[in-house]
Amino acid sequence: MLSVWLATAFLIAIFLVQRLRSPITKLPGPWHTGFTSLALKYHEFTSNRRLFIHNLHKKYGVVVRIAPNEASFASLEAIREIYASGGSGYDKTELYDLFRQFGMKTMFSTLDKYTHSQRKRELADRYAMTNVLREEHVSAITDRARDFVSRCVASSKSVDVYVWLHCYALDGVTNFMFSPGGLQSLNSDSDFEIMEELTYHQSLQKNLLHYYLPNLAPYFPKNLTPRHAPKTNTYVLKMSAQQDPSQHTLVAKLTRKDSPLTHAQVAAECKDHMAAGIDTTGDGLCFLMYELSQTHHHLFQDKLYNELTTVSSETPLDRFPYLDAVVKEALRCAPPIPMSFPRFVPQGGRTIDGYYVPEKTIVSCQPYTVHRLDEDVFPEPDRFNPDRWLEEKGAAERNRLFFAFSTGGRGCTGRNLAMVEMKVLLREVYSRFRTTVAVDMAGCMDIDDQIISARPRGQSCRLMFCERAEGGDAIIQ
Q1: What string of H, E and C letters represents the secondary structure of 66-108?
Q2: Per-residue b/e over 447-459, b at no fewer than 16 CB within 10 Å?
Q3: Which residues form the signal peptide (predicted)?
């Protein structure tokens, strides 16, 4: 019996020595993160990883150890090293395997840089601003924005914009990918069901169980299986097999005669873009409109109204500096993907922010913290204030730390489409209406963490739409 205790003590001693000798123990952080990842996993399963890491950064600075083999960074130097060195930064971790579609890797879920770059070549030109701004795409986005407005003003009562913003985002991205087969969930009950299937779910803990216990996953009961989306799958498979899609759509590019992709790969890629498009644009707009609708933020609404109504309706979207400031501030405060973007340190290790980090260590930055930690760049970081983006002083630093879409070769491919969709909708709404938070608003608008994305915790945001009289001062109730 004594020999068993001695052997156990010996093994524990070896474990402790190995941990203490690891270079990562030299990084700032709570003592326990040098020995165990239990604290991090607890906060992940309780939807609190983002704030757990953010609070550690507030205490320890731009570098913090969060687990024995994982560190978080929040500096411009680290962003450039992790996500942009060599063009595309470090390789992704296995976390991204959770984002396979139809069991297949997509551009987003590929782990190594080479495979990602090969796939990106197949579709990157579709998301170039020159293609996004084609008349056919902008016209379709504008039509859907007007459908959204019609939905919101059809009743004199409050309206849950969370619902209709996700319909708008879904209709926009599917038209961009599949026209003429895009969805019409703002006007069609059957298409609305696809929006519900993609939006209303709770899969965080289930996905984490599959990530951390992959060998046991085949034996999990059905109630521990992440969400299924049969209606979405049927739609995507059908649209990916279209014989004559519009020339400038995503599916037209992926199914061209010399495309190296199979039908299954095309469908997987399209479903991935579809899911990303509804979450990022729908949730981002919801957080934004809620901020603008609060009484103490009506000054920002008035500034936006004045800009939108004092220029020609033909003015290009990039000629509205205050509109741009409003969108960027909303994405700074509540980035649709506020969580860590994990990467593996390459072979040989790297020095990041002055600390040597060994190979295969997981490193990351999270937009939520990057947008808040340096208060010299972002004073009053938790305050929604679009005016900060119009100040000349510190403009370069603010823009360099704007991390809502990540950066480098693996940054968000759809950022141009998302920005155009957001700006078109805001122009349609705030050139005519003032929005206010409804008295029957009961949904919690705190940021609710998912795997890497986030959404309003209550998944509801009730607003009132009041049409402005000519001149914008009076409000027609």
Answers
A1: EECCEEEECCHHHHHHHHHCCCCCCCECHHHHHHCECCECCCC
A2: bbbbbbbbbbeeb
A3: 1-19
